[in-house]
Structure of Integrase arm-type DNA-binding domain-containing protein:
Amino acid sequence: MSKLSALQIKNATPGKYEDGHGLRLIKREDGGGQWVYRYMLNGRRREMGLGGLGPISLKDARELASGFRTLVAKGIDPIKYREQQRREAARNEHLLKDVAHDAFESRKASLKGDGIAGRWFSPLELHVLPKLGKKPVSQIDQQDIRATLEPIWHTKASTAQKAADRLKIVIDHAAALGLDVDLQVVAKAKRLLGHQRHEIKSIPSMPWSEVPDFYATLEEPTVTHLALRLLILTGARSKPIRFARLEEFDGNVWTIPAANMKARVGAERDYRIPLSHEAIRVIELAQRMERGGYLFPSSRRGVISDATMARLMERQGLDARPHGFRSSLRTWLAEMTDAPHEVAEAMLAHMSESKVVRTYRQTDYLDRRRLLLQEWADFCTSKSAPEAR
């Protein structure tokens, strides 16, 4: 069978032309054409397209046909082989940013508020995706991750750890999608990065014995003073205090919505806090300044900021911060009461047991906590407590 030449192809009229060994050119009336490879495998004749005459030259077509003839000689179907190669190539083209968003979507149900606040995704968005987001996830290795996290590995240790942990979840998600990834790539990168020099510092707290003296300084019936008083008396975090609404208070119980609780604590249920006599008095004073249903509104709009109470303590020359009063309360419980561990932890809405244990334990120790918080309030107000204004 005669071989085709470039000149023959150029001058060929519409029709089918054989180059030999199964390679055929189908010429069209518009001057274009299509290369086809014909082969016999397991007693069955098949044809596969190799590409158009424009992008695929005669030389290219012969090389492609030669490679496919080798597969046929080995009993491998070239059409199925090419489809498999295309699927693998498509799988490996998944960009990290796309897989990361898909992983985030799959985890939303387990995140507080469906992750709307962005805290789960932000370490990736700020520190990983700007550098690696447009790279296929299957091509990311430990050197890539090392170079990405190295600038913050020691200076922002906690953030870097979160970014690495989130990236590990994304890599696991990619594996679940069937992508060709190294499940150990993040662990390898951590070994290359080494131990972090950054020391995690706890939020400064006030010794519980000094709390009454400080509480006595909060004598003005201002939003900031009253917010700090309620924070100290209840052991609540800053957010539930700042976003407290009138409808959350019913008699001597404050029910904090799950959305205002921290992380998985809020993902499960609302949290009830029994109110001491002093806490009720503070709430009554705060009601005079209520705006839009919020007990502690800002002087401009919305509620007081997270830093408002901290700035007040700074101006008094204190190292302690508002969140530290939770530590003050917890230490007081340990040193001055006989409160069982589980009750003391419940005072701060800590989850010290597994979800299964919490499911079967149908109590939040409300009555026992009420006695303890009343005792705590009596202690806090023991040094010339501020009078109602």
About this structure: Residues 6-85 form a domain with the Double Stranded RNA Binding Domain fold (CATH 3.30.160.390).
